[in-house]
């Protein structure tokens, strides 16, 4: 995200936590502008006038070693309120001569019960009868820094919330940004409005003009081709760019053969007729299937699909003059799972075809106006752009499509089977009024067959896995708790109507430890 010198803001120093972006999301939800920067970028800031608060994120490093990531100690003398989270708390303790010790006995992972010791502005309206907080740390502060007070403790971490109210420095060992921490948003609310005393001046809808202006400034008189799949991300991207440069946008829909049943035709007609986009359709299904033949490794699938997309777009770009940009609907969760967007030590989870799956050498420059936004924020932008509700609230669909929902080899036969099963599942969710209650739902084919009995005959067919999750942002998720009658009904419908499936299972794993997609 571009650093805005002229805006009142809270800055978040990213030390590599997988959930750093959730901190920014919580701040923005409360109506305050926030930016994530690296420790190196912090050192380059010379004017702190509009910075009203600083948050130090968690991260995988330890302050107990000889070398560790830090911040200039001078920032603590600028009278800007500071909140340290997890690693951020330990760093504050280290810099103010507290004591931190790595210990297996003190490590805490998962939920812990927080006990109040003293009152604090940071914890106003936060405590209730049972405060459950989310921990993820091995090191622990065992000696309080001078002039700091203990505000709260857990059984295994005595210094869980600490403060130096005179200097407006606060630290929490738990993660208030994740939904697993009960009432965690109150911590941020208190920090922003009681301690930083910042005003609400930011909302997602107001970002539309900034994004359009930024696109104009970057693209100028050049042309852009946009990869349009028909999902909310690529659709909002296309509409934003169309508002910015109009005639210089060429949208391309590539039929990979890996989309849901009939979805491609519906989307094409919608954008061609309703939104009047300059839209071209390319049928490359045979090429994609040929390249994916006998490929079962998920990372290889993503790389193949990513490279093919780029090759197709680069070939298409040659047919036009002044094409310099490839636009994609990349979101922040895509980036954080593929690589760190800030250059920190965030662990890579998997490649996304439009991030880590892209070839290193590309002839086109990337244009990704949504790469700092979460899915729900993109939907707000979509609504402000007049995006059709059916598309704007469509469940997330992976760029590689059904290629990563068919575990193992991708064949025309298996694609057909999965399309039919998925179509039945999604339609049933809509018919039963469940679709909008679920963040993402899909069917997948597992790479094994099992014995079944249909009529009086033995069958040996595919296992269909169903997955449906609830989430706020896709960074964490829990499975949707269907009533038994629905699972009975959908299993029966799929098996009776889709030849090639004789067993249906339902995935009840949360994220973490799993991801939402299987591959």
Task: Write up what this structure looks like.
This protein has 519 residues and is of the alpha/beta class. The chain has three domains: 9-195, Class I glutamine amidotransferase (GATase) domain (Rossmann fold, 3-Layer(aba) Sandwich); 224-392, HUPs (Rossmann fold); 406-506, GMP Synthetase, Chain A, domain 3 (2-Layer Sandwich). The protein contains 14 helices and 20 strands. A nine-stranded mixed beta sheet has the order 2-1-3-4-11-10-9-6-7. A five-stranded parallel beta sheet has the order 14-13-12-15-16, sandwiched between helices. Strands 17, 18, 19 and 20 form a four-stranded mixed beta sheet that branches. α6 (232-245) crosses α11 and α13 packs antiparallel against α14 (484-497). It is globular. The two termini are 28 Å apart. The model is unreliable at 339-353 and 355-359 (pLDDT under 50).
Which structural traits does this protein have?
519 residues, alpha/beta, Rossmann fold, GMP Synthetase, Chain A, domain 3, 3 domains, nine-stranded mixed β-sheet, five-stranded parallel β-sheet, 14 helices, 23% strand, globular
Question: Roughly what is the average pLDDT, rounded to an integer?
Answer: 87
Rounded to the nearest angstrom, the radius of gyration is: 25 Å
Task: Please tally the β strands and state the result.
Answer: 20
Question: Which percent bin holds the helix content?
Answer: 25-40%
What would CATH call the class of the largest domain? Alpha Beta
Q: Largest beta sheet: what is the strand line-up?
A: 2-1-3-4-11-10-9-6-7
Number of discrete domains: 3
- The CATH fourth-level homologous superfamily of the largest domain: Class I glutamine amidotransferase (GATase) domain
How would you sum up the global shape?
globular
